[in-house]
Amino acid sequence: MKIIPPYAKKKPKKLVVHNDQRVDDYYWLNEREDEEVLAYLGAEKAYYEELTADTKDFEKNLFEEMKSRIKEDDSSVPYKHNGYWYVSRYETGKEYPIYSRRKGTMDAPEEILFNGNEMAEGHEYFSIGGIAISPDNKLAAFGVDTVSRRQYTIRIKNLETGKIYDDKMADTTGGAVWSADNKTLFYVKNDSVTLRSDKIKKHKLGTGDSFDEVVFHEKDATFGTYVYKTKSKKYIIIGSYSTLTSEYRILESENPDGEFKMFSKRKRGLEYSISHFDDSFYVLTNKDGAINFKLMKVGEDNTASEYWREFIPHREDVLLEDIDIFKEYYVVSERANGLNQIKINRWDATESFYLPFESETYTANVGRNPDFDTDILRYAYNSMTTPSSVIDFNMRTKTKEVKKEQEVLGGNFKKENYSSERIWATAADGVKIPISIVHHKDTVINADTPVLQYAYGSYGATIDPYFSSVRLSLLDRGFVYALTHVRGGQYLGRKWYEDGKLLKKKNTFTDFVDCSKFLIKKKYTSAAHLYAMGGSAGGLLMGAVVNMAPELYNGVIAAVPFVDVVTTMLDDSIPLTTGEYDEWGDPNNKVYYEYMKSYSPYDNVKPQKYPNMLVTSGLHDSQVQYFEPAKWVAKLRELKTDTNLLLFDINMDAGHGGASGRFEALKEVAKEYAFLLNLEEKID
After folding, report:
1. Strand residue runs (E) in 428-479
2. What's the number of CA atoms in the CB half-sphere (13 Å) around residue 480?
3. Which residues are catalytic?
């Protein structure tokens, strides 16, 4: 018996901008509380469950397989902060972390700060975030989200008595910063509709939030704001940011009731970040056309940009990503030819050297280093074939200690059984696009080899080649995983990002397609065995690709995809929209409107064959509203001319990140892998 897919009613809505009329037949699906909308979403969910009923056992087996590789009673590497060693750990069979600390040494009695498993009871979704310990170590501010819209309520716990105070700050990012007096908190307030982080408020311990003072209001709708404390502990910093512009205000932590002082006024296109050391600030910035950023220095008294002086010059071939400051050293994180580099320098200029890394498919980054007066640099390293390690490097003696290497349980994993490489495809405009590849060494590479091609490609976010124990479930079944470093990310420097945004956004899509063609041409796979996957803005990439070149893929997974670009970017009531103008453009400007419309996946669905597709979403998603993929699926159902699978799996309890539990999230991955492996099995 043939199972009939659900079809949404067409209720045409005319949308007119710049004298251009679009007709949106499924606009009505944006009414989250409407019974008809919920009924349609329920029908899609039921259809998904019915069509995947025969793979449920396989999904369960995949889940158990993935779970079996993960150490259940695992813990983080302890880090020292203000006289205490802090650890997060998991207990066998439990979904959420337990946060604890020990005073002075790791042999001291354990103090449980928060038990996420107990706190999550009774909630379908639970997330704890932004734990901030007061300078005297007696209080902890923490945020809790039980809806998955990234709206946290901050509470305060007395760590000596265990009492949670009545203080309650709602609609926040979850994080808070203590001043030196141990009773004043600064936190970020979100707009309840748009979710934009627009206010910094000051809270006094023991008072109601109605008394909280707004110390900064970011009124520009294209900016967000945040607050943090410098590693030196001397300053509380308020930051304002958009995609292209930064601004900071500073206040000494000892003076929480003082006025924040402007660091350097915003200038469109000027990005900078600040770190404090001794009597100076160090400014990482793109000032004076430093597209790959440079490091500048300025005294505490006159901090405006005209007083900044060069400390590390700009380099055309090296992206300067970050700086970490210690008493005797400063550590620079760089990227050259796509590869992470960590450079250690003494303040007295007597020594400077790079940590050695050998692979071309690795990720290395500086870890959590809250201690200022130490010779130890903590960093993390992994590659596509090597599990993640946390390493303590002694900058004085140049010796290292591996504090922890990720355990892959089950007894079957050996890193030497896997092979990785970096290859380069040529885009239509002649640009070389890097692809990081990993597979089991026994996998025969030819036109019949299944390949999962993944990319993100937006916001300058770089997806580095990383190890995944979960991914082994694909590799061990003969799949090749190809991480495509398309333009729009920042893998090859800032220009790589600039060439994949705004009016150059289509480079992201054509790069992905050209990489697919390259993999097929070089006999890594064929169209019958090539699969594509991306999420969020990477879901937009998937939507564009299936409109442009559907014939290249047997299956596509679009996770929480941003696909209704024009309508969303025209609606400034939708969370995050106004802050996105520097990434996608403002469609109130006709030039950007027309360009967006030319690639927006929803607007460009047409009568043609599409690959087998799995689309996922969450009803409470704060980043990409559920109705974008819902509308897209409805339009695809209406217009596609094939009989291939089109599945829409909507989680009615979760948001952008999916399920909240440690292992619950694996069930969603198991669904995705079952979809791919089932398609591949049908070919065979």
Report:
1. 432-440, 451-454
2. 30
3. 536, 621, 656
